[in-house]
């Protein structure tokens, strides 16, 4: 049996049942919320993760290493160091709000740089626009996956579970080998845009499990097959499938048959007081039935900065040595970098693999596992790729050649040295070996001298790998552990380098501090399952930060030390963005599928990010408006495939929401941020008005607008019918933009009266946009509202007075609901200039005011005023269809296209070609915009989020006076706050377990739902099937799908299990009683409109997200 010491450490590291171990009940609570307790989970999870400890060495060398199985004297209180959070709580007293909150404050004040090290590596740098120097702009073909292991990157780095410093000068990541694969697993594989039947898609299984905002603790899980990874099969099968078929995924192969795979957990932690001391622990579990061998090769490397300029900068260096003797030897890699300075990576010896059969007890007669220190250069292997001459004998793919004999080039016996035999390979053939030898291939087959070294025997270079080999790891959960530490400290100065217990204690303390941080967010009796989903969502959002570097001038012109790019490359994309100079940590939509920022995605990312790290959220929004991003004319860059594309103008909304979230949760009112962003957005608003309102009629043509294939025509290209597309959503987006700029101006006017005039300007602009969109005045103007159908539609204007509506029931007709703003009487009365201008409009433009301002003279609930595109009558008509389960209302949220079009598609013939829109609940059936996203039926969390907030705003005005049937035809009537909550619950049901233990997002895959090593982990997909809720598109898009964390925080307390009956109306009603315990900042009212479950007063304090008053939204 394992010693009590081992069991104690194992329990503290991962706890029982696969969930975090409880913090001590003696620890102080945070903001009145106790730390997690050992409460049984709703669905027990028999995941037990045990960390083996090395036994006492057979031959101890002085000084002896301290291990978990050493027989130490019985601990007394004075010998047991108290946890850092307890010492910090004692020091700070009432100012203590958690160890992680303290780190955030230190980072914000620049006292300590806690965010210097983080998960800033991309999951995919190959096949990105930045690495594309081709003549035709085909990034997928120019730099494919098979080049990535041999070819140095120019603009960034990628890896598995990788971290780097915030300027990406030094990178640390994971690589593995199962003894079967033709290459090392050092980056994630997926099919390209050309190979996938629904565009590009990663074909791996991995999870971002946890992260704190300062990355003081992070956890990642990669599932690595023990069989040969099915690279060829994944490509060929996806190529064979049509767009009408599902994608061929890794679980569809035999890769996980008989559970022959490894669970590889990667954890990072930082020392309690030093952000430059980084622990890395890699724990691998053999889930298969038989013993298996695993090679674990953590890698440390410098990005290649020396191959591009004619005058290279000083070259950084890595040098290695083994220190100590016998089983206590430690691998030491010394890092020297011109600007990063000097630090060390310590590779500790690992205990031999152990299994559950001996209760994870380490056999003291078995030697520990020592790493082989491998060094090479991060330089391109020109010989392998192009048949050229290498600049150095040691190249980027040297570890593949050194470890995998089958990867090595032909030796000199098979062909004369220096001879390169050219073979031509078709585009889709595999480059991973095992193919038909007669199959023609493209590229050289490089000979190499016998007995050559593929790694530098002098143990120096710019790329390092610590090669640990674990033989015969027992099956059914056998375990192998690797520990490393990146630190400037020297041996003898850092006890954690010589004492595994101290090492593991440090990692465990950071994990407990992560528990403390997230426990302070989750108020009320939220289920354990929802808490876990919320934490993974936040963790995924924090993991998907990435160092993004793009200097347009250098990229377009090419590098002096490299061959010049093809001349016509300058005209392919982004030539107008000469000012771009980006070198920042940015929030990515998905670090594999979309490893680049996207302007409107970023806005949605910042909402949940503001809950955990307002400073980072504000930085993201601020950066996109800075002069090295925004064009001089005010346009915000969209994304790297085409910076000039047009995304919906959501920046102002996000900036104000982040401002309010920080004020609500942290008590900080950052007016400097708000004013700075607002000033820049004035430029952007002007750009929109000048460029997208072609006729000056306040009806906008947005072009792309982020909704890809939602219309019958490609809205980024000229219409095949001729004429101009007048977009209901484009015009609604601008009305939404107007109202958010108005809202910000009103906030700023409370502190600076200059902004009253600006608020009046946006008020006036909104009125004219609303009037132009929704009402006819004479024969020369066309309305986008269809009275008969009760929906907004796009229209084609062929000439003045000659137009045609396109009767497609889609998000285009729901987006006008976004343009909604409630004005508190306290705000209006506080700003006399604005009030005077508004009253002038009421008196002098009564027709316009009456039909656009929702009974402006009498006001609504609490005498509030409503600015909205949709009048009450039109709102009710739209909601009748939006809440109809046979149209928009799915069990999992609001569909992007009405299900009506499943049986009744709409289309038209133009010049012999059919253009049609039908209901596609799953993946796209067309190649429009690459075919990897679909807005003709699926559920998108970003657009649902704005609908939910719109409903909450309408409730602020109408209160209980407006009750609608939800769902339509059900007989259940509720106010709009109740409707908003119902939509939120249905979105949460995408991820939560139902009464059968299934998650809708898993699409019925039993292994994901029921396997104890899968069922607690959640993927956050890009969009979701409109009928089933199955996850689709990018699988790690915690970017805007991370919004579910916000929904859980806001309504998780009342969320029922999926597929269970609704609460009867008589019981449900009390959730919507007006109940306030704080005054509205603006109105001074005791009933400013709390959330749908305001009756649960014990969880309604002033620092939660439950509040949906005008002050909070």
Automatic annotation (TrEMBL):
Q: Which GO terms describe its biological process?
A: oligosaccharide metabolic process
Please list where the region (Disordered) is annotated.
1-81
Where composition is biased (Basic and acidic residues), the residues are 1-11
Q: Which domain of life is it from?
A: Eukaryota
Return the Pfam families for the record.
Answer: Glyco_hydro_63 (PF03200), MGH1-like_GH (PF22422)
Q: Which InterPro entries does its entry note?
A: 6-hairpin_glycosidase_sf, 6hp_glycosidase-like_sf, Glyco_hydro_63_C, Glycoside_hydrolase_63, MGH1-like_GH
Gene3D superfamilies, A to Z: 1.50.10.10
- Alphabetized SUPFAM superfamilies for the sequence: Six-hairpin glycosidases
Any idea where the Glycosyl hydrolase family 63 C-terminal domain is? 871-960
This entry's Gene Ontology molecular function terms read: Glc3Man9GlcNAc2 oligosaccharide glucosidase activity
Domain Mannosylglycerate hydrolase MGH1-like glycoside hydrolase, residue spans: 594-699
Q: What is this protein called?
A: Glycosyl hydrolase family 63 C-terminal domain-containing protein
* Source organism: Ephemerocybe angulata
